[in-house]
Write the structure tokens for this entry.
Amino acid sequence: MSGHSHWAGIKHKKGVTDQKRGVLFSKLLAAVTIAAKGEPDPEFNPRLRTAVETAREAQVPNDNITRAIRRAADTSAVLEELMFEAYGPGGTAILIEAITDSRNRTVAEVKHILSERGGKWADSGSVQWAFERVSGSDGLKWQAKFPMELSAADMEQLKNLLGAIDEHNDVQEVYTNAKLE
């Protein structure tokens, strides 16, 4: 059977795995850089300490973590945290946390994902009222005040939308008020 190679199969599987790992590393290192902006010492910065621990649990190399902390002190590397609000299928509320070096690019890309998959961009403050900040094991998170049920079709569309948003490199977390199984 010519053309069939054991290495070719391994190469394709490894490529997919490495790509997913790279996206995860990028997200974790962006979180480390943002957390290190105020205080670069994890002893005095609990947010940075949590971000570093999370990165280490995902097996991010220590050199990469150190570079991310140093990048926070560099004034030319400007990362900013963004909070987007949107409505999804069935009127579900969606909060999107992102860290980016280009606000305009990220806004345009997230708007495009929303419009392609049945979501609608919302003005600032129009969705956030449906959530509250709660303290968790890995920092502050958003939790829905009023979780809502969805039909099977809307739930499937919402899962596709959330998956597409979460795959974006700049997006850190996505929250919704839908009851996800």
About this structure: The CA atoms of residues 135 and 153 lie 32 Å apart.
